[in-house]
Design brief:
Order of helices and strands: HHHEEHEHHEEEHEHEHEHEEHH
Distance between the termini: 60 Å
Number of strands: 11
Radius of gyration: 24 Å
Structural class: alpha/beta
Number of helices: 12
Amino acid sequence: MTNLNWNDLRYFLALVDSGSLTAGARRLKVEHTTVARRIEALEVALGLRLFERLQRQWKLTPEGENLLAGARRLEQEALALERAAAGAAPLAGTVRISAPPVIASHLLVPQLGFLRQRLPGIALEVVGESREANLSRREADIALRLSRPSAAELAVRPLIEIGYGLYGAKTYLASTGQDAWDFIGYEESLLATPQQKWLEKIAAGRPFPLRSNDLSSLYQAVRAGLGVSALPHFLARGDRLLKLLAAPACPVVLTVWLVMHPEVRRSPRIRAVADGLIELFGQDSVKQLAV
Protein backbone atom coordinates (compact mmCIF):
# COMPACT_ATOMS: atom_id res chain seq x y z
CA MET A 1 0.00 0.00 0.00
CA THR A 2 2.92 2.36 0.50
CA ASN A 3 3.43 2.56 -3.29
CA LEU A 4 -0.19 3.42 -4.11
CA ASN A 5 -0.48 6.32 -6.57
CA TRP A 6 -3.86 7.93 -5.97
CA ASN A 7 -3.86 9.31 -9.52
CA ASP A 8 -4.08 5.73 -10.79
CA LEU A 9 -7.65 5.68 -9.50
CA ARG A 10 -8.55 8.09 -12.32
CA TYR A 11 -7.46 5.46 -14.80
CA PHE A 12 -9.32 2.77 -12.88
CA LEU A 13 -12.60 4.74 -13.01
CA ALA A 14 -12.16 5.73 -16.65
CA LEU A 15 -11.71 2.09 -17.60
CA VAL A 16 -14.73 1.04 -15.53
CA ASP A 17 -16.93 3.69 -17.14
CA SER A 18 -15.73 3.13 -20.71
CA GLY A 19 -15.28 -0.66 -20.64
CA SER A 20 -12.26 -0.83 -22.92
CA LEU A 21 -8.67 0.39 -23.04
CA THR A 22 -9.26 2.33 -26.26
CA ALA A 23 -12.34 4.16 -24.99
CA GLY A 24 -10.72 4.83 -21.62
CA ALA A 25 -7.62 6.24 -23.30
CA ARG A 26 -9.76 8.45 -25.53
CA ARG A 27 -11.57 9.80 -22.51
CA LEU A 28 -8.31 10.57 -20.68
CA LYS A 29 -6.54 11.76 -23.87
CA VAL A 30 -3.64 9.34 -23.45
CA GLU A 31 -2.37 6.23 -25.24
CA HIS A 32 -4.10 2.94 -24.44
CA THR A 33 -0.76 1.54 -23.30
CA THR A 34 -0.65 4.24 -20.64
CA VAL A 35 -4.03 3.14 -19.28
CA ALA A 36 -2.91 -0.50 -19.17
CA ARG A 37 0.34 0.43 -17.44
CA ARG A 38 -1.40 2.54 -14.79
CA ILE A 39 -3.95 -0.19 -14.09
CA GLU A 40 -1.18 -2.75 -13.67
CA ALA A 41 0.65 -0.40 -11.30
CA LEU A 42 -2.53 0.01 -9.24
CA GLU A 43 -3.03 -3.74 -9.06
CA VAL A 44 0.57 -4.25 -7.92
CA ALA A 45 0.25 -1.52 -5.27
CA LEU A 46 -2.99 -3.02 -3.94
CA GLY A 47 -1.95 -6.65 -4.34
CA LEU A 48 -5.25 -7.32 -6.13
CA ARG A 49 -6.36 -8.27 -9.62
CA LEU A 50 -8.97 -5.65 -10.49
CA PHE A 51 -9.92 -6.59 -14.06
CA GLU A 52 -10.40 -9.69 -16.17
CA ARG A 53 -8.72 -8.99 -19.52
CA LEU A 54 -11.24 -10.10 -22.13
CA GLN A 55 -10.83 -9.83 -25.89
CA ARG A 56 -12.96 -6.70 -26.37
CA GLN A 57 -13.42 -5.37 -22.87
CA TRP A 58 -11.98 -5.32 -19.39
CA LYS A 59 -14.42 -6.64 -16.80
CA LEU A 60 -14.20 -5.91 -13.07
CA THR A 61 -13.26 -8.80 -10.82
CA PRO A 62 -15.05 -9.15 -7.44
CA GLU A 63 -12.05 -7.39 -5.88
CA GLY A 64 -12.44 -4.55 -8.37
CA GLU A 65 -16.15 -4.31 -7.57
CA ASN A 66 -15.29 -3.96 -3.87
CA LEU A 67 -12.90 -1.11 -4.65
CA LEU A 68 -15.29 0.80 -6.92
CA ALA A 69 -17.46 2.57 -4.31
CA GLY A 70 -14.44 3.87 -2.42
CA ALA A 71 -12.80 5.07 -5.64
CA ARG A 72 -15.98 6.96 -6.53
CA ARG A 73 -15.97 8.70 -3.14
CA LEU A 74 -12.33 9.71 -3.55
CA GLU A 75 -13.06 11.06 -7.02
CA GLN A 76 -15.94 13.21 -5.74
CA GLU A 77 -13.78 14.58 -2.93
CA ALA A 78 -10.98 15.40 -5.38
CA LEU A 79 -13.40 17.16 -7.74
CA ALA A 80 -14.89 19.11 -4.84
CA LEU A 81 -11.38 20.18 -3.85
CA GLU A 82 -10.69 21.35 -7.41
CA ARG A 83 -13.89 23.38 -7.47
CA ALA A 84 -13.08 24.92 -4.09
CA ALA A 85 -9.61 25.83 -5.33
CA ALA A 86 -11.15 27.45 -8.40
CA GLY A 87 -13.32 29.53 -6.09
CA ALA A 88 -10.21 30.98 -4.42
CA ALA A 89 -8.41 31.78 -7.69
CA PRO A 90 -7.58 35.38 -8.71
CA LEU A 91 -9.00 37.25 -11.72
CA ALA A 92 -6.52 35.56 -14.05
CA GLY A 93 -6.06 32.17 -15.66
CA THR A 94 -8.16 30.11 -18.07
CA VAL A 95 -11.92 29.73 -18.35
CA ARG A 96 -13.26 26.87 -20.49
CA ILE A 97 -16.60 27.41 -22.24
CA SER A 98 -18.50 24.52 -23.84
CA ALA A 99 -21.15 25.27 -26.47
CA PRO A 100 -22.88 23.61 -29.44
CA PRO A 101 -20.50 23.89 -32.42
CA VAL A 102 -22.45 26.38 -34.54
CA ILE A 103 -23.25 28.59 -31.56
CA ALA A 104 -19.59 28.51 -30.57
CA SER A 105 -18.27 29.41 -34.02
CA HIS A 106 -20.93 31.78 -35.35
CA LEU A 107 -22.57 33.40 -32.32
CA LEU A 108 -20.09 33.28 -29.44
CA VAL A 109 -16.57 33.60 -30.86
CA PRO A 110 -17.26 36.63 -33.12
CA GLN A 111 -18.33 38.58 -30.03
CA LEU A 112 -15.42 37.69 -27.76
CA GLY A 113 -13.47 40.88 -28.41
CA PHE A 114 -15.79 42.44 -25.84
CA LEU A 115 -14.64 40.01 -23.15
CA ARG A 116 -10.96 40.26 -24.11
CA GLN A 117 -11.09 44.02 -23.57
CA ARG A 118 -12.90 43.64 -20.25
CA LEU A 119 -10.84 40.74 -18.93
CA PRO A 120 -7.31 40.90 -20.40
CA GLY A 121 -5.84 38.59 -17.75
CA ILE A 122 -8.17 35.69 -18.58
CA ALA A 123 -7.55 33.21 -21.38
CA LEU A 124 -10.65 31.66 -22.94
CA GLU A 125 -10.99 28.11 -24.20
CA VAL A 126 -14.08 27.64 -26.40
CA VAL A 127 -14.99 24.00 -27.03
CA GLY A 128 -17.60 23.35 -29.70
CA GLU A 129 -19.24 20.02 -28.93
CA SER A 130 -22.63 18.45 -29.51
CA ARG A 131 -22.59 16.48 -26.26
CA GLU A 132 -23.23 18.17 -22.94
CA ALA A 133 -20.03 18.72 -20.96
CA ASN A 134 -20.09 17.26 -17.44
CA LEU A 135 -19.70 20.33 -15.23
CA SER A 136 -19.37 18.29 -12.04
CA ARG A 137 -16.27 16.65 -13.52
CA ARG A 138 -14.85 20.04 -14.54
CA GLU A 139 -15.03 19.23 -18.27
CA ALA A 140 -15.96 22.91 -18.66
CA ASP A 141 -16.33 25.90 -16.36
CA ILE A 142 -19.31 27.37 -18.24
CA ALA A 143 -21.67 25.66 -20.66
CA LEU A 144 -24.07 27.16 -23.19
CA ARG A 145 -26.98 24.81 -23.85
CA LEU A 146 -30.11 24.84 -25.98
CA SER A 147 -32.21 23.05 -23.37
CA ARG A 148 -32.59 23.87 -19.70
CA PRO A 149 -30.71 21.32 -17.56
CA SER A 150 -32.83 19.25 -15.22
CA ALA A 151 -30.06 18.69 -12.65
CA ALA A 152 -31.02 20.66 -9.54
CA GLU A 153 -27.41 21.25 -8.46
CA LEU A 154 -26.55 23.37 -11.53
CA ALA A 155 -26.84 27.16 -11.67
CA VAL A 156 -28.86 28.12 -14.75
CA ARG A 157 -29.70 31.43 -16.42
CA PRO A 158 -31.34 32.27 -19.78
CA LEU A 159 -28.78 34.04 -21.95
CA ILE A 160 -30.34 34.86 -25.32
CA GLU A 161 -33.16 33.74 -27.61
CA ILE A 162 -32.43 32.57 -31.14
CA GLY A 163 -35.05 32.60 -33.88
CA TYR A 164 -35.39 30.41 -36.94
CA GLY A 165 -36.60 31.00 -40.47
CA LEU A 166 -37.11 29.08 -43.69
CA TYR A 167 -34.11 29.74 -45.94
CA GLY A 168 -33.15 28.76 -49.45
CA ALA A 169 -30.44 29.67 -51.93
CA LYS A 170 -31.53 32.56 -54.14
CA THR A 171 -30.65 30.63 -57.29
CA TYR A 172 -32.59 27.59 -56.10
CA LEU A 173 -35.69 29.59 -55.23
CA ALA A 174 -35.57 31.43 -58.56
CA SER A 175 -35.58 28.16 -60.50
CA THR A 176 -37.84 26.02 -58.32
CA GLY A 177 -41.49 26.60 -57.56
CA GLN A 178 -42.73 26.22 -54.00
CA ASP A 179 -44.62 23.04 -54.82
CA ALA A 180 -41.38 21.44 -56.05
CA TRP A 181 -39.15 22.35 -53.11
CA ASP A 182 -36.93 19.70 -51.58
CA PHE A 183 -36.28 19.92 -47.85
CA ILE A 184 -33.05 19.65 -45.86
CA GLY A 185 -33.43 18.58 -42.23
CA TYR A 186 -32.20 16.73 -39.19
CA GLU A 187 -31.84 12.97 -39.12
CA GLU A 188 -33.65 10.55 -36.84
CA SER A 189 -31.91 11.41 -33.55
CA LEU A 190 -33.09 15.04 -33.77
CA LEU A 191 -36.59 14.63 -35.18
CA ALA A 192 -38.08 15.85 -31.88
CA THR A 193 -36.48 19.32 -32.07
CA PRO A 194 -39.06 22.11 -32.51
CA GLN A 195 -37.53 23.37 -35.76
CA GLN A 196 -37.55 19.90 -37.31
CA LYS A 197 -41.14 19.23 -36.23
CA TRP A 198 -42.18 22.49 -37.89
CA LEU A 199 -40.20 21.68 -41.05
CA GLU A 200 -41.77 18.22 -41.31
CA LYS A 201 -45.20 19.84 -41.07
CA ILE A 202 -44.35 22.34 -43.81
CA ALA A 203 -42.86 19.61 -46.02
CA ALA A 204 -46.14 17.66 -45.77
CA GLY A 205 -44.58 14.46 -47.05
CA ARG A 206 -42.32 16.00 -49.69
CA PRO A 207 -38.79 14.53 -49.97
CA PHE A 208 -35.77 15.23 -47.78
CA PRO A 209 -32.82 14.48 -50.11
CA LEU A 210 -30.40 15.18 -47.27
CA ARG A 211 -30.61 14.76 -43.52
CA SER A 212 -27.84 15.32 -40.96
CA ASN A 213 -27.26 15.73 -37.23
CA ASP A 214 -24.90 18.63 -38.00
CA LEU A 215 -26.37 22.12 -38.41
CA SER A 216 -23.32 23.33 -40.35
CA SER A 217 -23.94 20.57 -42.91
CA LEU A 218 -27.58 21.61 -43.29
CA TYR A 219 -26.50 25.21 -43.77
CA GLN A 220 -23.96 24.27 -46.45
CA ALA A 221 -26.53 22.07 -48.19
CA VAL A 222 -28.96 24.98 -48.42
CA ARG A 223 -26.18 27.24 -49.75
CA ALA A 224 -25.42 24.58 -52.39
CA GLY A 225 -29.02 24.68 -53.62
CA LEU A 226 -30.08 21.24 -52.42
CA GLY A 227 -33.32 22.49 -50.92
CA VAL A 228 -34.80 24.69 -48.21
CA SER A 229 -34.40 24.32 -44.46
CA ALA A 230 -35.18 25.89 -41.09
CA LEU A 231 -31.98 27.70 -40.08
CA PRO A 232 -31.18 30.02 -37.17
CA HIS A 233 -31.10 33.68 -38.20
CA PHE A 234 -27.66 34.27 -36.69
CA LEU A 235 -26.27 31.68 -39.10
CA ALA A 236 -28.14 32.45 -42.31
CA ARG A 237 -29.45 36.01 -42.28
CA GLY A 238 -26.19 37.69 -43.30
CA ASP A 239 -25.43 35.21 -46.10
CA ARG A 240 -25.82 36.92 -49.50
CA LEU A 241 -26.43 33.57 -51.21
CA LEU A 242 -29.53 32.88 -49.11
CA LYS A 243 -33.02 34.33 -48.93
CA LEU A 244 -35.34 34.28 -45.94
CA LEU A 245 -38.83 33.28 -47.02
CA ALA A 246 -41.47 35.52 -45.50
CA ALA A 247 -44.04 32.74 -45.75
CA PRO A 248 -44.38 30.29 -44.23
CA ALA A 249 -42.94 32.10 -41.21
CA CYS A 250 -41.15 29.87 -38.71
CA PRO A 251 -42.42 30.44 -35.14
CA VAL A 252 -39.55 28.56 -33.44
CA VAL A 253 -37.53 30.52 -30.87
CA LEU A 254 -35.03 28.63 -28.70
CA THR A 255 -33.38 29.83 -25.50
CA VAL A 256 -29.64 29.55 -25.01
CA TRP A 257 -28.97 28.77 -21.34
CA LEU A 258 -25.82 29.66 -19.44
CA VAL A 259 -24.99 26.82 -17.03
CA MET A 260 -22.40 26.53 -14.25
CA HIS A 261 -21.69 24.37 -11.24
CA PRO A 262 -22.50 26.51 -8.15
CA GLU A 263 -19.16 25.81 -6.49
CA VAL A 264 -17.21 26.93 -9.57
CA ARG A 265 -19.39 30.02 -9.80
CA ARG A 266 -17.57 31.38 -6.76
CA SER A 267 -14.35 31.62 -8.77
CA PRO A 268 -13.66 35.32 -9.48
CA ARG A 269 -12.47 34.68 -13.05
CA ILE A 270 -15.34 32.32 -13.92
CA ARG A 271 -17.88 34.64 -12.36
CA ALA A 272 -16.37 37.56 -14.30
CA VAL A 273 -16.61 35.67 -17.60
CA ALA A 274 -20.19 34.59 -16.85
CA ASP A 275 -21.18 38.16 -16.00
CA GLY A 276 -19.45 39.33 -19.19
CA LEU A 277 -21.40 36.82 -21.29
CA ILE A 278 -24.68 37.91 -19.70
CA GLU A 279 -23.88 41.54 -20.47
CA LEU A 280 -22.64 40.72 -23.96
CA PHE A 281 -25.71 38.76 -25.04
CA GLY A 282 -27.97 41.33 -23.43
CA GLN A 283 -26.82 44.00 -25.90
CA ASP A 284 -29.36 45.00 -28.53
CA SER A 285 -26.83 44.56 -31.35
CA VAL A 286 -26.26 40.93 -30.40
CA LYS A 287 -29.95 40.22 -29.82
CA GLN A 288 -30.72 41.50 -33.31
CA LEU A 289 -28.33 38.94 -34.76
CA ALA A 290 -30.20 36.10 -33.11
CA VAL A 291 -33.90 36.84 -33.40
